């Protein structure tokens, strides 16, 4: 007989500061800047993340970068199934034992994928319905976009990222921080800021604040005859020289400034506009006039 997320769980299943440090010491783990590792040591923050994510009892959650398991355990208390993707050899080897020790009744509902999340294109078990993760700061945006691309069944996402990155992801057209991450995330989902996280809930405490970003997947990408690759190529070109007008910024993409202007006019976009003022739908319209190569 297997347990359900609604069955009573041990009150101390989640990891506290002393638990985290004891686990790290036992494993000989020291968080590395190279992998952007900052472990959550506050159980109330874990519960807040899960509550904000709207994790349901029937959810299949994928978590990237579980570390020592702080968020993993909280997710397992709530969701039907959790699959964690961990690149670190030591952490990946230790996490199943932590789950078994602290939530033995839920261990059968947990799976570990020992891999680089940027290389993962399939997951074991049922298809994920949600992505909830404390993403390593140095790869947060590439990992988020990769997961949204390769796992279209993910309906809801809540990620904790560096505050500055959270601002960029959730920025609207016209904002100074609106850019490539904003547009590409918006291709997949409705994106919004979902809260701030202080530094003292992490070990080690980072030098920057963190933010929560909520993404709810669109029913489909913007209506366009262009492919995602074509749209993203326009986005990349537009922001590579964001101070230039689109006529100039897209000249390399189009083959010449005149060809860029023709594509912009055909798309109903002013050649004098700049990338930071365009919606994802407008970028898609431009991409429909991708020059033949």
Descriptive notes:
With 293 residues, the protein is of the alpha/beta class. The chain has 12 helices and 9 strands. Helix 4 links the parallel strand 3 and strand 4 (110-114). The radius of gyration is 21 Å and the shape is elongated. Mean pLDDT is 92; it is low at 6-10.
Explain briefly what this protein structure is.
By secondary structure, the protein is α/β, with parallel strands linked by helices.
Adjacency order of strands in the biggest sheet: 4-3-2-5-6-9-7
Structural class: alpha/beta
On the 0-100 scale, what is the average pLDDT?
92
- Spatial extent as radius of gyration: 21 Å
Number of helices: 12
- Runs in which pLDDT lies below 50 for 5 or more consecutive residues are 6-10
Q: Give the helices and strands as they follow along the chain.
A: HEHEHEHEEHEHHEEEHHHHH
End-to-end Cα distance: 60 Å
Task: Please provide the count of β strands.
Answer: 9
Instruction: Report the sheet-strand fraction.
Output: 15-25%
**Helix fraction by DSSP (H/I, runs of at least 4):** 25-40%
Overall, the morphology is elongated
Largest sheet: 7 strands, mixed
